[in-house]
Amino acid sequence: MGSGTRDAIRAPGAGDPGDAIVQSRCDPRAAKSARNAVLLLLALALVLALASCSRAPAEELFAAGGVPEAPGSTLQVNVPPPPFSDGVFPCSSCHEPELKFNSKQRKLKIAHQEVELKHGTEARWCLDCHDAADRDQLHLANGEKIPFEESYRLCGQCHGEKFRDWRAGVHGRRTGNWDGEKQYLLCVHCHNSHAPRFAPIKPESAPVPPRRTEPTGGGTSK
Amino acid sequence: MNREASDGTACAPPSVGEGTLSRRDFLCAVVGCAAAATLAGCSEFTHTSFFRKHLRELSKEEIARMLAELEKELSEQYGKPVTVGIDAARPGVQFAYALDLSRCVGCRRCVKACVNENNQGRDPAIEWIRVLEMDKDKGIDFEHANPYYEAEQVPRPGHFYMPVACHHCRDAPCVKSCPTGATWSDKDGIVVIDYDWCIGCRCCMAACPYGARRFNWTEPKVPAEEVNPQMHYLGNRPRPKGVVEKCTFCVHRVRAGRYPACVEVCPVGARKFGNLNDPNGEIRYVLENKRVFVLKNELSTRPRFYYFYGI
Amino acid sequence: MRFVRAFLQFVAGSTRIVLRGNALYWSWIALLVALIVVGARAYAHQLATGLVATSMRDQVSWAFYIGNFTFLVGVAAAAVLLVIPAYVYEWKPIKEVVILGELLAISAIVMAALFVLVDVGRPDRLWHLIPGLGLLNVPASMLAWDVVVLNGYLVLNVVIVTWLLFTLVRGRHPAKAIFTPLVLFSIPAAIGIHTVTAFLYSGLSARPFWHSAILAPRFIASAFCSGPAVLLVLMQLLRKYTRFEIQDVAIWKVAELMAYSMGFNLFLFGAEVFTEYYAHTEHLVHMRYMFTGVEGHTEIVPFMWASLGCSVVAFVLFLIPRTRRHWVTLNLGCLLIYSGVYLEKGMGLVIPGLTPDTLGEIYEYGPSRGEWEVAIGVFAIGFLLFTLMVKVATPIMLGEFRVDTRVAAGSAAGPVVRPATAH
Fold first, then answer.
1. In this complex, do A42 and B310 lie within 8 Å of one another by their Cβ atoms?
2. Is the pLDDT at A214 greater than 70, yes or no?
């Protein structure tokens, strides 16, 4: 008996489910359909789980998952669409370019009063991230305008370590394949950009402590 | 080493892939299949046949027959088509897990996702993952840890949360202690259990320093509508009464390239999983850039489960 | 052919002996059978519902059954305490009664094996332990080694006893050249079984209460002071109710050896207590659970102090020659040391080792009714086996049961049980 007998065992034969999974690793087309099936399966779990984030769940959460480039280079990441509240985008539908704007830091009274800013308010306010001239975009510290789909670059300006970790897949939730395509989420999919700290959530039920079920003296656990 | 069959013909020693007279058939012939009552299953090879060999000594055909019979049995039991795979470890893959202790909020979503994914018994409720609530000012202190915390909201001030499940140790004391070899460390690092070989002696439970193993004190019940029909022979197929079970790193998912269920469901992204041999993977990044530690390091179990501080 | 006929006569004669007895004998047998029935019914219930019928849970996964198993392995090992003076020192007064120790060893091993049987979750799969048929994980697994050495010890004792009795019943003596080494081999074998059983515990780094080098010596010491207690009582019963002549010095010598064992046992216990309490590391919690309770959990505390008290009093009674030789205090001491070590091996080893568990949780275990009933049934089986074996062995040892092999062919010859001539 060679070493093969003690090796890990494959499900044999063509056409059985184990084989399909084995095959999908080698065949890109099968991989894509398998991946889509996986994504579909994950839909429920993801929606449920994201509901626990302090953000509204975004149903269309499945991106054409991107693979991050090597750290240091310009990152091109495919992410799901930013989770805008209903009707708020495009901002230019109200904020016409000709409209004069007030760039003084103040508490807003006419619109967006519901936005509670709890994000470094000693030093910043809305227009430090939102571009005053083009409200459909954000802007970086050097003035470069970026779309909302790349808001991670804006967050990464101050939160550099988290940005690096996120790029490597270590910060934030990950779905997908450890050996292949993975899904990224935008920072704002989990963090409310105006008040990023997570609110506490209700935990699932506690485990059942062990109990004696047969007649005897009482039994308790801590 | 040749053996004589009952009719006197010599047989080659059993080997994988060959349809020669196996030891099992020889024994059946000798003992007498006429006593079929006691040797039920002699004529048909099932996963619970008497004198079935250890899994690692079975031929491909025997395993295929076994899985087919198991799928049929489970499909009938749960009223839906069930698949039972036995995907092997991929060469060059060494799994590891990293959990960000600074992020876990103790919401237990991982616990419940695991229960659903892995068909754990509902009554009595078996949960492979145990989340320990600890005091920040005491640090990791098991004597004062509490897995039974109930709260309206987590995290509770002054506390941190540490989920514990099987660490799939490189030097697993449970594997060492098993008298029948029913649990072993597979090539990709996953410590697996053959539920049809385990005799339920619970040596492994005494040996595990992390309280990772669970015993089926009675027949586990999984409602048919909640059963996950994609199963693995060494993973999430429903277990019988009287055997031990534990986290398998979702072997049915990870050997197909997917993340374990707990990794995907964690709402704060505290759980990371990957291949240690992948220089671009998350786990290598964590090991190289974060402060990692393992539980009960002094026991030299060399776990594959690392805790780290992401912040 | 004569050999076979003699053996058949031996079996027939033994059967006749066990079926003959006075009212006391039969009520004892009836009691044991009743207890076996109780145990069997409880075990059937346990088989049907699973081990949930016990009070064991994930947090305390070994308990009453394994505690009894450990204690009984010690009793089996202790039988050898008679072998040492008898065969090593050729001390005649004990030599005739060595066989009683071996009969006790057989009964104890059978009970120990039964306790393992009732404890495993899948008794239908125990054949997985048989090398060749299944897979025996040696050298790594201590339990696998325990299976090997316990079965080996059982076979050794069965062979010795059967050979001795069958030879004596034919009016001969076993050939010393083979028999004596076999008996002498049972000394390291006995130390071996209890050491491997101790290694089963002390090898587990996950359980700091057990993970100590002192565990194996403590096992031997406590075995040697408790096992022979049964034999002391038995020897007194035998010489009172049968024609067995056992000299006082034989009994007192065994008691003396027990006294030294008790002292050593208490010394080792003191060493453990000092080591834990002086440095008071986290591991102290297990000993605190035994002696003072932890966070209000005090269920086993009274039993631990009772065990200590019994052991100390028994030690004093056995140490002082006057109380050792007085029959009342001697038997009281036997009862005390047996109880003390029984509590220590059962509650004082297995439960504190697992409480608190590896993640600090405390589950207060106490045997369920089903566990009590099954345990009583197993003990009854052992006692019954021991009774029957002693009932057969006694007339053979006394020369009252002989198989007459030189009877002329054709006559209705059978085993002859003659009244003994004066010894």
1. no
2. no
Answer whether B39 touches C (CB < 8 Å): no
Within a 10 A sphere around the Cβ of B156, how many other Cβ atoms? 16
- The answer to whether position C258 is within a domain reads yes
Contacts of A177 in chain B (CB under 8 A): 257-259
Cβ(B291)–Cβ(B158) below 8 Å: no
Measured between beta carbons, which residues in chain A are less than 8 angstroms from residue B124?
A: 208
Structural domain count, chain C: 1
- Are B141 and B175 in contact by the 8 Å Cβ rule? The answer is no
Question: Smallest Cβ distance to B264: which of A6, A42, A179?
Answer: A42
Please indicate if any CB of chain A lies within 8 Å of the CB of C366. yes
Taking an 8 Å cut-off on Cβ atoms, the answer to whether C363 and A210 are in contact is yes
Contact between chains at A175 and B259 (C-beta distance less than 8 A): yes
Contacts of A22 in chain B (CB under 8 A): 87
Nearby residues of C275 by Cβ (< 8 Å), 6 or more positions away: none
Give dist(CA B284, CA B307) in Å, integer: 13
What pLDDT does residue A45 have?
62
**Buried b / exposed e along B85-120 (16+ C-beta atoms within 10 A):** bbbbbbeebbbbbbbbbebbbbbbbbbbbbbbbbbb
More confident residue, C89 or B276: B276
The interface pTM score, or ipTM, of the predicted complex is 0.90
**How distant is the Cα of C222 from the closest Cα of chain A, in angstroms?**
29
**Interface residue A5 vs chain C (CB under 8 A):** no
* Sign of the alpha-carbon torsion through C46, C49, C55, C61: positive
Q: Decide which of B155 and A216 is more confident.
A: B155
Distances (CA, A) of A143 to A125, A132, A164, C288: 16, 11, 22, 67
Neighbours of chain C (3+ CB pairs under 8 A): A, B
Q: Is residue C414 part of a domain?
A: no
pLDDT computed for residue C409 by the predictor: 41
In a domain, C276, yes or no: yes
* Calpha distance C196→B179 (Å, rounded): 13
Q: Provide the residue range defining the domain that includes C67.
A: 2-408
pLDDT digits (tens, 9 = 90+) for B41-50: 444 567 777 7
pLDDT at A73 over 60: no
Looking at chain B from residue 25 to 44, which residues have their Cβ under 8 Å from any Cβ of chain A?
none
H/E run at residue C251:
helix C248-279
**Do the chains contact at C54 and A214, CB–CB below 8 Å?**
yes
Comparing A69-78, A149-158, C17-26, C275-284, the range with the smallest average pLDDT is A69-78
Q: What is the domain-level CATH number for residue C149?
A: 1.20.1630.10
